[in-house]
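for the recovery benchmark. tokens below, seq after
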């Protein structure tokens, strides 16, 4: 006579969300709970998505795809702007020209002067528009993560800025003159160079690229986590409300908070692009004119 075996319990599955709009908007997984039914907050895994594979080999992931889309968007915007350039600009051309004038007048010419400002305007404008495009993808539906939220791109942009002002300084002052002006500032008593020189070296050649990278990276990481937390909480509370839990009414607060942080992220996207571009111009100006 066969022995009856007890049924094997089926592990609990996370509840499937029916709120596909919020899921798409915040790039959330289909479930906001773990296997035990508890709320699952966002974590660092948000920035390491499952890569796309070709022939079983990882090729790129969603963040790399977002970066390619942002770069293609910048190129397309500029190509269309050049093709549609007219004596009387259209609304589209006026919008692009507003960004270019902002970089030209408020950064390049104001920091570097008219001559050097025009010389470095292409680099500074590229920084501004590319960083803005990579930042703003954090709130674009179906993209929903900043292209600068993983260290690769911020580090590359900081390295370009870093090498630019060093090369510019060497060309303007010579190798010896450039490093002497940065490491041994005039007017300092010679014994104090034992203290001043290491500080100047760390400030100019170590802290500058580090701060450019971390400032851009940390703001986008924090912004993404806040948005995911708000909209994920909204999903969770709304599902609780639909299940009869009055506490779920708190979804109103998290939803409002999510949209508030979305507006704030737009400001951050512009501000971080502007600050990175501005600091690059300041560093180039210091390399060209050490007496300032």
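predicted aa per position
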């Amino acid at each position: 006579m066969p022995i009856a075996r007890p049924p094997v319990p089926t592990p609990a599955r996370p509840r499937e969300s029916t709120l596909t709009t919020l899921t798409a908007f915040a790039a959330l997984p289909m479930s906001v709970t773990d296997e035990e039914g508890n709320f699952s907050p966002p974590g660092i895994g948000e920035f390491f998505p499952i890569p796309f594979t070709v022939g079983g080999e990882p090729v790129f992931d969603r963040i790399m795809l977002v970066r390619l889309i942002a770069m293609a968007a910048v190129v397309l915007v500029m190509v269309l702007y050049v093709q549609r350039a007219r004596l009387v600009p259209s609304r589209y051309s006026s919008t692009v020209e507003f960004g270019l004038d902002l970089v030209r007048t408020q950064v390049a010419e104001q920091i570097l002067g008219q001559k050097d400002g025009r010389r470095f305007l292409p680099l500074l404008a590229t920084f501004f528009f590319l960083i803005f495009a990579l930042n703003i993808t954090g709130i674009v539906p179906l993209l929903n993560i900043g292209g600068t939220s993983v260290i690769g791109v911020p580090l590359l942009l900081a390295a370009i800025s870093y090498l630019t002002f060093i090369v510019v300084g060497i060309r303007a002052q010579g190798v010896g003159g450039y490093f002497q002006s940065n490491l041994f500032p005039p007017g300092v008593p010679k014994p104090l160079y034992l203290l001043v020189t290491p500080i100047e070296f760390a400030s100019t050649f170590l802290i500058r690229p580090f701060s450019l990278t971390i400032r851009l990276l940390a703001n986008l990481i924090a912004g993404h986590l806040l948005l995911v937390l708000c909209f994920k909480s909204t999903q969770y509370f709304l599902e609780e409300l639909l299940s009869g839990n009055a506490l779920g009414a708190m979804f109103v607060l998290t939803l409002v908070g999510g949209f508030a942080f979305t507006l704030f992220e737009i400001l951050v996207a512009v501000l971080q692009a502007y600050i990175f571009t501005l600091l690059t111009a300041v560093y180039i100006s210091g390399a060209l004119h050490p007496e300032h």
